[in-house]
């Protein structure tokens, strides 16, 4: 596939781009900073400027595409990860502006150019737990995509709006538009650095619902979404199968979630952040258990 990937220079994006290239896809990165990856060109552009987005989406992905003399090829898919990645980086209003306007521009341009597959990054924060003022607990466990999304912060608000925007574009166009409610992304080098602290103090993971997603598994989820057609509008929780702490499920429930209803029995290490829909609909199969990454 010929893929436009926005935000490919970021923490999650660079792993996804590298994986897609390794699978034989042609990827053009749209970002504010270059990505140092052989075989991938970066177009420096601002997603909040519709003209720049339209220009990149209708342009060449590299000098080699000039050679056939048959004009600019069309992208087969767009993966949209570009965003202000959390609160407390920019002003709240700027975070909201960039993320909502940028997503509108990217999906709008994709559909106007006839692209029928868009995958975009939403967030675990939509559930209102991660950046809450004080403690917020899930309404029930395991937390699935039907759980209410009523956040209080500008970043999560922007992601909820982006989901509504995507759903509206999909209804008008009939294209496939899939949103990924991505949990806390962990790169390979971060296991040895961070997980000993999580073992010592599980409360550090409360705001992430004790879950995580390995950056390489997130890349595989992106690929699965690109390969599976015909689902219309969908949102998927994206997380690994197990908790990110060294405590059994029953102990975590007793300590942190006493009184929270359980909708079904949970395995002794099963994540509270359900990835069942992603497994069922696109065949997602995460591979990286944090215990293996730090030597058991």
UniProtKB/TrEMBL annotation:
<protein>
    <submittedName>
        <fullName>NAD(P)-dependent oxidoreductase</fullName>
    </submittedName>
</protein>
<dbReference type="InterPro" id="IPR001509">
    <property type="entry name" value="Epimerase_deHydtase"/>
</dbReference>
<dbReference type="InterPro" id="IPR036291">
    <property type="entry name" value="NAD(P)-bd_dom_sf"/>
</dbReference>
<feature type="domain" description="NAD-dependent epimerase/dehydratase">
    <location>
        <begin position="3"/>
        <end position="225"/>
    </location>
</feature>
<dbReference type="Pfam" id="PF01370">
    <property type="entry name" value="Epimerase"/>
</dbReference>
């Amino acid at each position: 596939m010929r893929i436009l990937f926005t935000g490919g220079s970021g923490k999650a994006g660079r792993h996804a781009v590298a994986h897609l290239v390794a699978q034989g896809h042609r990827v053009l990165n749209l970002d504010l900073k270059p990505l140092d990856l052989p075989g991938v060109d970066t177009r420096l552009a601002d997603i909040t400027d519709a003209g720049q987005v339209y220009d990149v989406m209708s342009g060449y992905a590299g000098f080699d595409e000039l050679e056939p003399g048959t004009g600019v090829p069309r992208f087969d898919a767009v993966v949209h990860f570009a965003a202000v990645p959390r609160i407390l980086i920019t002003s709240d209003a700027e975070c909201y502006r960039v993320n909502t306007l940028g997503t509108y521009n990217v999906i709008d341009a994709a559909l106007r150019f006839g692209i029928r597959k868009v995958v975009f990054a939403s967030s675990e924060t939509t559930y209102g737990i991660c950046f809450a003022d004080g403690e917020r607990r899930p309404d029930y466990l395991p937390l699935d995509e039907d759980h209410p999304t009523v956040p209080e912060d500008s970043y999560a608000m922007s992601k909820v709006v982006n989901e509504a925007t995507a759903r509206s574009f999909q209804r008008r166009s009939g294209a496939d538009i899939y949103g990924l409610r991505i949990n806390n992304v962990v790169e390979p080098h971060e296991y040895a650095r961070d997980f000993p602290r999580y073992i010592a103090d599980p409360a550090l993971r409360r705001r992430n619902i004790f879950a995580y997603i390995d950056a390489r598994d997130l890349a595989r989820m992106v690929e699965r979404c690109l390969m599976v057609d015909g689902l219309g509008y969908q949102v998927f929780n994206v997380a690994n199968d197990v908790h990110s702490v060294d405590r059994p499920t029953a102990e975590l429930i007793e300590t942190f979630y006493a009184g929270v209803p359980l909708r079904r029995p949970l395995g002794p290490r099963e994540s509270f952040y359900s990835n069942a829909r992603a497994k069922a609909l696109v065949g997602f199969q995460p591979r990286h258990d944090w215990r293996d990454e730090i030597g058991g």
